[in-house]
Amino acid sequence: MSESGKTIESKINYGKAVMVGCGFVGSASAFALMQSGLFSEMVLIDANRDKAEGEAHDIAHGIPFARPMRIYAGDYDDAADAGLIIITAGANQKPDETRLDLVHKNIGIFASIIPEIVKRDFGGILLVVANPVDILTYAALKLSGYPENRVIGSGTVLDTARLKARLGRHLAVDSRSVHAFIVGEHGDSEIVAWSSANVSGVPLDDFCEMRGHYNHAESTGRIAEEVRESAYEIIAKKGATYYGIAMSVRRICEAIVGDEKSILPLSTMMHGEYGIADVVLSMPCIIGKNGCETKVPITLDQEEVTALHESAATLKKVLDDAFQKYEGV
Predict the structure, then answer these.
(1) What letters, b where the CB count within 10 A reaches 16 and e where it falls short, cover 292-305?
(2) In Å, what is the CA distance from 118 to each residue of 145, 251, 302?
(3) Identified catalytic residue from 61, 170, 186, 271
(4) What separation in angstroms does the CA of 70 have from each of 38, 60, 96?
(5) Which regions of the chain carry the CATH code 3.40.50.720?
(6) pLDDT tens digits, residue range 115-136?
(7) What are the tens digits of pLDDT across the range 66-114?
(8) How much is the average pLDDT of 51-58?
(9) pLDDT (tens digit, 9 = 90+) per residue, 179-211?
(10) Among 317, 314, 192, which residue's Cα sits nearest to residue 265?
(11) How many CB atoms lie within 10 A of CB 235?
């Protein structure tokens, strides 16, 4: 390792996390991370300093029931030596706004956040959670200039958890024994990789028949639709989703801090996999202390590969339209 590499490594405190954005997702994620015991120090940053301070005080009151840690409101100077910076900051989509309107606003927000992080010679992992996560992960990569392994998005970790939970209920089996991924966009063009799905090594169709389910096409179509629509249903009933993504953030952080080499479907740059390049998509990755080590080439049938190309094309169109406003991004 170079001398400069040693300097950066020595600055990284893997016991310290920074949460940028203290809205529903940021505060719920901070609460989940406090309970996890992963970190001894957590900094909350928000454009509204009072909001960050209030959340820090509120969450800190639960520390006597968890593990000792220091949690406080701070600024970007506090982020320099952190092992992880988690970005949940971003505007929410309003009823009269298009998806592209939201993209423009949130890239603008990232254009103010990322340079502040870069100025501090941050050497840890940048985890993007704000939506649209695949596009904003791409923006974070371009704005930061960081190595691709160090800039990842939460991707379809939550979508995949929703799929596993739904399949677990359908099959009356522990969802932790279900092995399946949702890949592509974290959004409407997401793809369920049915061809590689299994339950404890048993192909999904075989396991379904073992449990008395035979109409596979009808069942998989219905389940995929329910998973895809679940966020809309929650938002319609309570206004926002935040507990599921908070647990997803916790799981990703566990894999990084513990250097687990776990396989999770994260937003990362594509470089020719399945014939797709120069776009960020969610694909299974080996994740550890150094971020994304490598993608895992799961088996996809031709229909799934075609759908993945369509998902990539959808994102590229939005990227091309959105980034025309940002020279140098």
Answers:
(1) beebeebebeeebe
(2) 9, 25, 41
(3) 186
(4) 12, 8, 41
(5) 3-153
(6) 999 999 999 999 999 988 999 9
(7) 999 999 999 999 999 999 999 999 887 666 655 567 788 899 999 999 9
(8) 97
(9) 999 999 888 889 999 999 999 999 998 899 999
(10) 192
(11) 13
User: What's the whole-model pTM score?
Assistant: 0.91
- Domain 3-153 matching CATH 3.55.10.10: the answer reads no
Q: Which two tokens stand for residue 11?
A: 């600055």
Check if the beta carbon of residue 17 is closer than 8 Å to that of residue 126. no
Check if 309 is active-site: no
Q: Is 17 helix (H, G, I), strand (E, B) or coil?
A: strand
Q: Which residue spans of the chain are classified as CATH 3.90.110.10?
A: 157-323
- In the three-class reduction of DSSP (H, G, I as helix; E, B as strand; rest coil), residue 18 is classed as strand
> How far apart, in whole angstroms, are the C-alpha atoms of residue 284 and residue 180?
10
Tell me which CATH code domain 157-323 carries.
Answer: 3.90.110.10
Where do we find the tokens 């028949």? 209
Instruction: Enter the tokens of residue 122.
Output: 């941050």
